[in-house]
């Protein structure tokens, strides 16, 4: 119910300018005159409701930590360098950091202990290395009944304490990767695919020292290579001997003495890859998988942040490539897709497949698990003309395996076919399937383009864009291409919120773009490939674009989660106890670092959006102060007696990345304020 003082007519209310309404409310409020309830017309109520979705109040916090303002880039990164230069710079910084740690540890005769300390965090009962901000995926205080599987790690030990003859990168193969007790098949599948390429893993782990226990890794985040160091501590499934457990009690009953029971316990429950809680190697002494996964969890803040995702995004993070998600129902020519894409697996592309993801399926399709990522390891056309693909399940065990034609032991196999493919039955987690059956059973391909040719360059720009409730295309970037018939890969992405999980706010976004000539002609040269599942980025690949000037128009569709907390509300809640919140500092630092890409641009837009008149109108609109019969302020309600919607305040940070072989290519950001 809306209120006005006196008895104005409905037409008068509709005709009053907004500033006049504010002035009347303020003056009448001072007089103390009692308000009479007047129900507004339906159209007026609708108009007032929509005003909250069209006010120019777009704001986004730039920094969330006190006394540590983000260093904003006054000139957004727009270099058109060779891709290899950015990688080489990060790899060299990582090598230098590793060597510095080795020198310090050798000088003081100490093993390396990372500040991101799994052991100390678990023993203190914090769980910051396991859980995201405001969530408790792993309840480390939960008491599990005897005989039940523990769903949280119960101990931490160093590599030298877990493995009898530990090795690192001695044998690197996609067949050696096994998923642990975390729903991160997307990452493990991507790791499997990278391990299937030449030196793929060695490009990620650039330096290490097994004696000191320090390992340096590089990853691709938001258009740039970053590095991190980790120590050699890993989570174990079972508690240490001194902690009461059913396993310890059973061994004590059956062993002749305590020392024998203790030794047996260590060999069975705390030795080798099988004792690890998270991802591990099939080889009981190889350590590259759990240490790489640990480094990936560290840069994201915790292991829980790796739960659920898309293999294509994991492949981007590990390779610096660009992923396009292709629905099988959208493939126009299956033979052409085989010839130009699938046949180049492990050379120019990586592929993952998933089934049932559009139907939220969690069953199986002739053995293929729905809602689960599989890796395409190899493709082959038999001499008979039969097209086959070799897939691997990142679980690393004989589950979730294809049971149809060309599965192990099926009648299609002949001695000649086995010899041609070098296949043996019963191999853990891998199987062959025909191209026709694959297209019929899976929903989508995660197709990741690799940039292995040293001539590839990357030019990028980042900016903040206000997102209106009704999404529309806005001219955002201008591209100057000087090389004729140049291959081009365009990627529009938003900041990866997985890095600051818990501070992602109320809004989620979907991105779209189109490329057209500089004059904004109606004919588009290219449209972004629709991404119905992956939302972090959209892309398009053009084999030969003529030289010239082009405009990239961007459309962002926003959706507000009514149950999610805004960034500012989360900060307030986390600071209520006024104690040192280590997790908030960690996640807040990641948030500030991400948004520093566009700090100067967002400050400029903020000043444009906040004139004194707009601020007063916005304050009035957002609170809509009314009066009850006693003259006191009443709650913000609409004419139907319900609470009015919160003002729409969606802002998205987006970046355009253009990969080409044109050394003179340029990109400019345009003013999107309309």
Automatic annotation (TrEMBL):
SMART domains: CysPc (SM00230). The keyword Membrane does not apply. InterPro entries: Calpain_cysteine_protease (IPR022684), Papain-like_cys_pep_sf (IPR038765), Pept_cys_AS (IPR000169), Peptidase_C2_calpain_cat (IPR001300). Coiled coil: none annotated. It comes from the Eukaryota. Residues 602-647 are annotated as: Disordered. GO terms for molecular function: calcium-dependent cysteine-type endopeptidase activity. Residues 157-451 form the Calpain catalytic domain. Keywords: Hydrolase, Protease, Thiol protease. One of its GO terms (biological process) is proteolysis. Belongs to the peptidase C2 family. This is Calpain catalytic domain-containing protein. It comes from Fusarium gaditjirri.
